[in-house]
Amino acid sequence: MSDSEEDSQDRQLKIVVVGDGACGKSSLATRFAQEAFGKQYKQTIGLDFFLKRISLPGNLNVTLQVWDIGGQTLGGKMLDKYVYGAHGVLLVYDITNFQSFENLEDWFSMVKKANEESDVQPVISLIGNKIDLEHMRTVKADKHQRFCQENGLISQFVSAKTGDSVFLCFQKVAAEILGVKLNKAEIEQSQRVVKADIVNYSQDTVARTVNPPRSSMCVVQ
Ligand SMILES: Nc1nc2c(ncn2[C@@H]2O[C@H](COP(=O)(O)OP(=O)(O)OP(=O)(O)O)[C@@H](O)[C@H]2O)c(=O)[nH]1
């Protein structure tokens, strides 16, 4: 392979992740880059940074620089600088926290303003996180879809906790930036197998269950 071919296959894309505090940005970035999840909330001060190399159809390798931006930076002086020149932006909210959805207007305005003078206009995706908590949802899916349609955003629902669609949401944004089409099979392949939490049934509960579970883990395809 010639040098120029190698260069063209190893592009770096800057992807920034923004949204309210505690909506799950660090969890999303950590799930994507390190395939891990921590239940405990640790507030991001300023920003964190992750690198992950992914492959797209056509043997295209790209390295994503993921900028995980602390929710408390909204209104701060540094935010414009973090967001400037991004190729992709993930606008994240928590589907169980209505306020985090309402505040997206502010995050979105900030993203547009920060890139006003940039040559690159970012691909923006709206990410509804915590879909493992569907029973606690307070933001209706049609509100989410409307926001996407009105603003030309890619729509995604994910769970950083289970990993559901996390890889896919980064992959879709990278593909859109590079003008690569993902086919149905590739999209399905990127939806990870989800492992449920291990539930410890007490002896009492098992005794009362007609069909006691055979295994403490289930796999959702
Ligand atoms: N159930 C569930 N909890 C999640 C999910 N993603 C994140 N959390 C939890 O939500 C809390 C906040 O997650 P973080 O990833 O730290 O949130 P953040 O948006 O980075 O917060 P800031 O650093 O303040 O900007 C943590 O307790 C996470 O374990 C998810 O998909 N499902």
Automatic annotation (TrEMBL):
A single GO cellular-component term on record: plasma membrane
Domain of life (superkingdom): Eukaryota
EC nos: 3.6.5.2
InterPro entries with a match to the protein in the record: P-loop_NTPase (IPR027417), Small_GTP-bd (IPR005225), Small_GTPase (IPR001806)
Places the protein is found: Cell membrane; Cytoplasm, Cytoskeleton, Cilium basal body; Nucleus
SMART domains named in the record: RAB, RAN, RAS, RHO
UniProt xrefs under Gene3D superfamilies: P-loop containing nucleotide triphosphate hydrolases
Keyword terms: Acetylation, Cell membrane, Cell projection, Cytoplasm, Cytoskeleton, GTP-binding, Hydrolase, Lipoprotein, Magnesium, Membrane, Metal-binding, Methylation, Nucleotide-binding, Nucleus, Phosphoprotein, Prenylation
Cofactors that this protein relies on: Mg(2+)
The name this protein goes by in its record: Ras-related protein Rab-28
Chain's gene name: RAB28
